[in-house]
Amino acid sequence: MSSSAAVPALRSGRVAWQLTSTLWVGGVWMLHFVLLPALERFGLAQLLIDDIAGFMRPLMAAFAAVCALLQIVIVWAAVGTRWWRDLRGQLLVVVLVAAGAFFALAWLSEGEQTPYWQVFCYLVLAFAGLGLVLQPRPDEAGR
């Protein structure tokens, strides 16, 4: 691959990394720590808030998993086969495991209210995303 072809590839990876990080981490945090508490403060019925949370949390967990897969590809392209030794790769694996556990728990507790462990998995997504955002981009020379 020539150096002129590598520059647009690095730039597109940089843009994809920043965009996916902003969208999924910001969305997960915004839903749990801003939107749902604001709806409670606004005075909506708790059943309505639970329905909104029951619809939005799985949507955000699935979106986080898809974005994490894309980010794993970006880390793999930047770091190579040792992507799983990199902290960013490890945090992305945590995100995928937490999203998988979120949906496994939803499947196991079909018909019940959102279990404690499902909310815990969602919070693991949120804090793993925060740790990921605090890391340098894979293309930065610091790593």
Protein described:
- This protein is mostly helical and 143 residues long.
- The protein has one domain.
- It is built from 4 helices and no strands.
- The relative contact order is 0.15.
- The rough form would be described as elongated
Overall mean pLDDT stands at 89
Number of helices: 4
Number of individual domains: 1
Helix content bin: over 70%
Transmembrane segments: 21-39, 59-79, 91-109, 115-134
Protein name: DUF4149 domain-containing protein
Organism: marine sediment metagenome
Keywords: Membrane, Transmembrane, Transmembrane helix
Structural topology:
Elements: H1 3-42, H2 46-79, H3 87-108, H4 116-133
Summarize this structure as a short list of keywords or feature phrases.
mainly alpha; 143 residues; single chain
